[in-house]
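testing teh design pipeline on a random one, pls ignore if ur not involved
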């Protein structure tokens, strides 16, 4: 069995979609009860806290103008906004830059003599390198300062923001963990990252929650899956009471990303890797390489949304 079929089999056997959204500009969704607000991150209601601001369920920096949460009070909004979401914004800046560059001007490679890799300066400080053998353009972009573990917490916070109320009792420890200002201890697990080369719509975000089926022995209880642009992130939402292994995602059974609709043969296959976001110290000047194939540009231009489209949402049985 090829890896995608294997992953498809694994997830369809063991997981069920419990919620999902495809976010598009102009479509506003508010999660939770706006008349009777209870903050799921600190457990407070008015007048002990306030709910004046509309809390984004996913950071605005990702382009989210659609999904809001009535579950988050102003104090928690400020706590996360000045803390882990700031780290996330710094860490994810290259991806957002990448999407903007594509959206605006496309990529014009600069080739220099016969050297194997020809770097040139580009907008907003990234470098472009062209491998003349593989004809692949690599964008080398710099992340701003961030603590990796804070980035991991920001992913988990997004997942906790979209969970159904009935699931919250299973995630009390995760809530306490993301609220901690220091990043000294607690959970650490890899994030599954999938990158699909080619031009993608940059104004769509796909969000999915999948939960282990009753009777399954898969280790991780709940995954939050976020896809936008060229990337998909699959994040375990840690639940020590429900997970069947302490570091559930590193167990062999979970070594594949949640499957997406198979890419057309015309396009390069998506690549996946595990992101290690366990570092507690501030990281400065980290660079990230993103591939872009110039020779296939005109073919990839019309590419449908691989991750962020409705097909990714309807690929599996659902509870709703
Ligand atoms: Zn709160």
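output:
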């Amino acid at each position: 069995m090829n890896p995608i079929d294997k992953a498809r089999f694994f997830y369809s056997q063991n997981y069920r979609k419990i919620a999902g959204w495809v976010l598009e500009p102009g479509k506003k969704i508010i999660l939770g009860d706006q008349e009777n607000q209870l903050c799921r991150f600190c457990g407070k209601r008015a007048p002990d806290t306030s709910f004046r601001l509309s809390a984004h369920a996913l950071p605005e920096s990702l382009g989210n103008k659609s999904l809001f949460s009535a579950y988050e009070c102003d104090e928690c909004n400020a706590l996360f906004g000045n803390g882990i979401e700031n780290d996330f914004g710094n860490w994810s800046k290259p991806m957002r830059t990448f999407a903007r560059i594509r959206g605006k001007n496309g990529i014009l490679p600069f080739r220099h003599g016969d050297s194997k890799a020809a770097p040139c300066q580009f907008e907003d400080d990234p470098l472009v390198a062209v491998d003349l053998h593989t004809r692949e353009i690599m964008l080398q972009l710099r992340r701003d300062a961030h603590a990796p573990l804070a980035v991991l917490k920001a992913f988990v916070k997004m997942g906790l923001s979209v969970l159904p109320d009935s699931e919250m009792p299973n995630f009390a420890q995760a809530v306490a963990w993301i609220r901690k200002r220091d990043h000294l201890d607690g959970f650490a697990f890899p994030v599954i990252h999938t990158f699909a080369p080619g031009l993608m719509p940059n104004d769509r975000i796909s969000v999915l929650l999948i939960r282990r089926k009753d009777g399954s022995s898969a280790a991780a209880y709940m995954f939050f899956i976020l896809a936008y642009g060229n990337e998909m992130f699959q994040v375990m939402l840690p639940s020590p009471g429900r997970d069947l292994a302490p570091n559930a995602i590193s167990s062999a059974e979970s070594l594949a990303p949640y499957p997406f609709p198979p890419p057309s043969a015309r396009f390069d296959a998506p690549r996946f890797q595990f992101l290690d976001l366990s570092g507690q110290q501030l990281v400065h000047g980290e660079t990230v390489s993103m591939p872009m194939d110039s020779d296939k540009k005109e073919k990839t231009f019309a590419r449908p949304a691989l991750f962020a489209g409705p097909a990714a949402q309807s690929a599996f049985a659902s509870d709703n």
